[in-house]
Specification:
D-isomer_DH_NAD-bd; five-stranded parallel β-sheet; 12 helices; about 15% strand; Rossmann fold; about 325 residues; hydroxypyruvate reductase [NAD(P)H] activity; 2 domains; D-isomer_2-hydroxyacid_DH; single chain; EC 1.1.1.81; NAD binding
Length: about 325
């Protein structure tokens, strides 16, 4: 059996594949493969481990209908047309749970950094604009005892809620498709409507998967309902918010600040105004980027792929 791997992975993945006698071609160039290159390399393969955001739409999956499995090194699977994968009988694997702590760490880091304008102050040092002590300039806002609203209280949202609750005594409210009784017991978290989440939260942190229903949830209307001192954090997917509406809401002081690990287009343009705002902290989608987490993701992706090729139950198959 032979597979195509779209980016070099931590070694654990290769060890597992070697043990099973599965051979592989790795794309190790500095630029992503084109769609044509992806097709060409995948035509000789039984499966793919996909480690980038390549879009597998109906047309592409039809061309790759011979594949038994596409194993993702991500928890999110919004880049796959799941209905088409079902139609062409291609199994899809993903990596839930193993990256929850690391991603919640980045949400928490962005919240702290945004609340104290940390990236703006760092730029003052390197730009030589430190200047005089300003008793009223560049001030942040405090988080103690405030209300955190989680949009999508799954594994990552729960870790973020725990950190904020334990570090800052924050009250937790959340909006989900279904209630999360564990979080209600553990953190006294309260289920609220979307309108209540927008109106009552001092901080909103977005963690839901990107679907047709959640796309663009944080738009002009939503930002208009939020508190003028609210901070918006997004470490999920950039398309959960409408980027221009977020820019407008920050410029019009409808909300106070934002911390973003994700963008509508990735990589984002270097002229994106969000990169230069005093109250905005941005990172280049590094939620899962720790040595330990990336190794766990590679291990799970390899195990998913091996199970699918050998006909065993995959440890983490995307339900279709
Ligand atoms: C995920 O796993 O979905 C992270 O965003 C990494 O892409």
């Amino acid at each position: 059996m032979h597979i195509f791997i779209t980016r070099p992975l931590p070694n654990i993945a290769y060890h597992l594949l070697d043990e099973e006698g599965i051979t592989y071609t790795i794309w190790d160039k500095d630029v992503p493969q084109t769609r044509e290159e992806l097709i060409e390399l995948s035509l000789k393969a039984d499966g793919i481990i996909n480690a980038d955001a390549s879009k597998f739409d109906h047309d592409l999956l039809e061309k790759l209908a011979h594949l038994k499995v596409i194993s993702l090194t991500s928890v999110g699977f919004n880049n796959i047309d799941i209905a088409a994968a079902k139609k062409f009988d291609i199994k899809i694997g993903h990596t839930p749970n193993v990256l929850s702590q690391a991603t919640a760490d980045i949400a928490f880091l962005l919240l702290l950094a945004t609340s104290r304008k940390a990236f703006f102050h760092h730029k003052r040092i390197i730009n030589g604009t430190w200047g005089m002590f300003q008793p009223t300039g560049g001030l942040g806002i405090e988080l103690y005892g405030k209300t955190l609203g989680i949009f999508g209280l799954g594994k990552i949202g729960l870790e973020m809620a725990r950190k904020c609750h334990h570090a800052y005594g924050m009250n937790i409210i959340y909006h989900n498709r279904t209630s999360n009784e564990d979080a209600e017991k553990e953190l006294n978290a309260k289920y609220v409507t979307m309108d209540e989440l927008l109106k009552e939260s001092d901080v909103i942190s977005a963690h839901s998967p990107l679907t047709e229903q959640t796309k663009g949830t944080f738009n002009k209307d939503a930002f208009g309902k939020m508190k003028s001192k609210a901070i918006f954090i997004n470490t999920g997917r950039g398309a959960l918010h409408v980027e221009q509406d977020l820019i407008d809401a920050l410029n019009n002081k409808q909300i106070w600040g934002a911390g973003l690990d994700v963008f509508e287009q990735e990589p984002t343009s270097t002229v994106n105004p969000l990169l230069y705002m005093e109250n905005v902290c941005t990172l280049p989608h590094i939620g899962s980027a720790t040595e330990e987490t990336r190794a766990r993701m590679a291990e799970l992706a390899a195990k998913n792929l091996i199970a699918a090729l050998k006909g065993y139950k995959m440890p983490a198959e995307v339900k279709k």
